[in-house]
Design brief:
This protein is an alpha/beta fold and 493 residues long. The protein has three domains: 143 residues, no CATH class; 103 residues, NAD(P)-binding Rossmann-like Domain (Rossmann fold); 192 residues, no CATH class. The strands form four sheets. Strands 3-2-1-4-5 form a five-stranded parallel beta sheet, with helices on both faces. Helix 2 packs antiparallel against helix 3. It is globular. The N terminus is likely disordered.
Length: 493
């Protein structure tokens, strides 16, 4: 099968392409607004640092009235910082709203700025205060994180109502294309709106019933022309036998100068960057995927972080937890703590602790609430067994605090898949079993990706992904996102 490409775009595509031009327009507009935010934050933080270190007179010299003014140092560092934010592509529309990669680039810009200033200061013998830099750059980076978080929240809300999304055409085999479309539709935060599909065999039946609204536009042969005709902003090429390596390259050539992005989705999914090495052989990009490991030095370090971290938090939260315990005892007859057997790493049971949020004997009334079918992640809304104060604790996850004791003992981790009861574990398939390869956690990836609002299937996929791809840096991000999820009461009940 050979791909055919026209040498020029249809006249209508160049003269009237509202969807594609609009997509580019919103991207430029959003980038300009975030640039203004970046400049504002950098200027504000640097002026504050300047005032704290050198005083509020911008024309004061470094060595008294006759010394060289210090304002130019602050201006120079600010310009370098702003330039670095652009150099690392921190406002690339492909990562805006996606989270970790955007924050990594913002953090990298701050570190690179610090390195540049330190090197220049060393060779030019600038008398730059290290305290001045150590105050300005970390503080500014944290404030930038906060502003980017606000922009991300706003952008996701816009995408929830169908705005700021890139129209995309998926091209590939029927089954692979269906799987990809379902994943893209799982969350609107991806920023892609699938407007059609080009199949390797378009003569076959349409897509599955749940994707019946996605039209089959034609064969992969006509992909380049169909992208222009339907004003798509991107084409997503899945792994398939219908397009050879040479033809895929020619597809990229055909899209040059059109503003259409070519995205290649590899055949392997749910593998994070740390496990992937890309190398080129004879011009062909190859992905080397390391096998997931579930023991070793990384896990020992994670255990140390868990135990030390839980010990510190327990020390800081001791008095608030005593107050909560007293309120539980006063407002509802019965014990303060609720102990329940949960299944941990490698299928080993342990007693998980929580502040009691339900009436005594709530477990014996489970059937009257959920019936005989206890599904995975069962957690009914408006559960009549929950006490009034228990509902408040659940809203802010206060009832989970005693699990810090489980973490300190080694039964649980601060971050990991949530532990489940034996009845749920009995329903596990191959995918679900992956979550038992790591310690269960107080919070996890699915909690910060939707909490109670996610389907059980989506939650299990996120937990399996975490088990195979976790990192300490990723755990830190999940912990921060947990704070925002709890404060915002996103999906909790």
């Amino acid at each position: 099968m050979a791909l055919t490409f026209s040498s020029s775009a249809p006249a209508s595509a160049t003269a009237d392409a509202p969807a594609r031009v609009g997509s580019a327009a919103w991207a430029r507009s959003l980038q300009r607004r975030i640039l203004v935010t970046d400049v504002f934050v950098v200027a504000l933080v640097m002026v504050l640092a300047h005032g704290v270190r050198f005083g509020w007179d911008p024309f004061a010299g470094m060595a008294g009235a006759s010394g060289e003014p210090t304002w130019w140092i602050t201006v120079a560092i600010s310009l370098v910082w702003i330039a670095e934010l652009a150099w690392v592509h921190s406002r690339d529309v492909r990562i805006l709203g996606q989270g970790p990669e955007e924050y990594r680039r913002v953090g990298s810009a701050g570190l690179r700025t610090f390195a540049i200033v330190a090197i220049v200061g060393f060779f030019t013998q600038w008398a730059i205060s290290r305290g001045y830099l150590l105050f300005a750059l970390p503080l500014g980076t944290l404030v930038l994180f906060g502003y980017r978080r606000a922009w991300r929240s706003w952008l996701n809300k816009q995408r929830d109502v169908g705005r700021y999304r890139t129209p995309v055409i998926v091209a590939g085999p029927r089954r692979t294309s269906e799987q990809l479309i379902r994943r893209l539709r799982r969350t609107r935060a991806s920023g892609y709106d699938v407007i059609g599909v080009c199949l390797a065999d378009p003569s076959s039946a349409g897509l599955e019933q749940d994707l019946a609204d996605v039209p089959v536009l034609g064969p992969i042969d006509d992909a380049a022309d169909l992208v222009r005709e339907h004003h798509a902003g991107a084409i997503m090429l899945t792994a398939n036998d219908a397009v050879s390596m040479r033809e895929a390259r020619r597809l990229g050539w055909a899209l040059e100068g059109t503003g259409v992005t070519l995205i290649v989705a590899p055949g392997i999914a749910d593998v994070a960057g740390p496990r992937v090495l890309m190398s080129r052989h004879e011009g062909v990009p190859l992905l080397y995927v390391d096998s997931a490991a579930f023991s070793g030095a990384r896990y020992s370090l994670k255990d140390i972080v868990d135990r030390v971290g839980s010990g510190i938090i327990l020390a800081l939260a001791a008095i608030p937890m005593l107050i909560v315990a007293a309120v539980v005892k006063i407002t509802s007859p019965g014990p303060v703590f609720f102990r329940q057997e949960r299944i941990g790493k490698d299928g080993k049971p342990f007693a998980m602790l929580k502040f009691r949020s339900m009436v005594v004997g709530a477990e014996s009334r489970l059937k009257e609430v959920v019936g005989d079918d206890v599904g995975m992640f069962y957690k009914p809304k408006n559960d009549p067994r929950v006490t009034r104060f228990g509902r408040f604790m659940r809203r802010y996850s206060i009832d989970e605090l005693p699990q810090l004791i489980n973490v300190f003992k080694g039964d649980m981790s601060l971050v990991g898949p949530r532990p489940q009861i034996a009845a749920e574990v009995e329903q596990y398939g191959d995918l679900e079993q992956r979550r038992l390869l790591v310690k269960p956690g107080m919070t996890g990836l699915w909690q910060v990706s939707g909490r109670s609002s996610l389907t059980p299937e989506a939650s299990m996929e996120l937990d399996a992904y975490y088990a195979e791809n976790w990192s300490l840096g990723g755990d830190a991000i999940i912990a921060l996102r947990t704070f925002w999820a709890v404060v915002g009461k996103t999906g909790a009940y």
